[in-house]
């Protein structure tokens, strides 16, 4: 039942019902007897306010939009959970959505979030998503980008030190005597992937070693990736170590190595941990991204901008952590 229907049933004005429901009876000079009659009826019928309509009237929805590439991913899922926990503590809710790397889907999601009157957005952008992000900024809605940059856009940003983390991985392999290090990455032009690639090529060039790189189609499925990695390994028998720039590429690589019966033939390290890596034999070394800290910093930046819209934009770069396991030792 709507406020309008309640007002008709009680033979009072819609504004009177609204004032009472929102705890403003005294402010509206409504008698205690009338206020009690309205509240009693509202309780009897189990009335629940339309949150969306209320947000239109007050400009407050107490919701934050979170847009990621894939909510089921072992990186984005935990970040989303941490964001939800932090926001719940301060009385906010989260609208989640996944772009699946699609520009069109990403733009549609932003439009939907804005229609829902979210009070801020935390976004892991797709390529060429700048137009939608600029629309958020034009509406003066707080915006924080995380994980990868949105082209050359000036935004609040939170992310891992991808270049530094990648150097940790390559340095670790070199320090353990591995010199023929193959890199398995994807053909993405996203900033975080470029940084991981550049750290690898820069370090090997500096040390006088040859870079051997496999760039996989970002859109290829896991089976296709594993098949291409098998070909890469057959064509490069000199390799003694493999560095995978994401955990899902590492998993595809492990399947390829198993299919070739080459378990134990390579030192293996991944950028990004995965719950499986510690359980495998040998356990897989990795560069770990601090997901809880990324989530907290994103929320901090968002609410700073919400409180003080004229504050200068900030970029928070968080160091990664090298986790040494038996696959590289």
UniProtKB/TrEMBL annotation:
Domain (HTH lacI-type) ranges: 1-58
Domain of life, source organism: Bacteria
GO molecular function: DNA-binding transcription factor activity; transcription cis-regulatory region binding
SUPFAM superfamilies: lambda repressor-like DNA-binding domains (SSF47413), Periplasmic binding protein-like I (SSF53822)
Keywords annotated in UniProt: DNA-binding, Transcription, Transcription regulation
SMART domains linked to this entry: HTH_LACI
Protein's UniProt keywords contain DNA-binding: yes
Keyword Transmembrane: no
Gene3D superfamilies found in the cross-reference section: 3.40.50.2300, lambda repressor-like DNA-binding domains (1.10.260.40)
The name this protein goes by in its record: LacI family DNA-binding transcriptional regulator
Source species: Rhinopithecimicrobium faecis
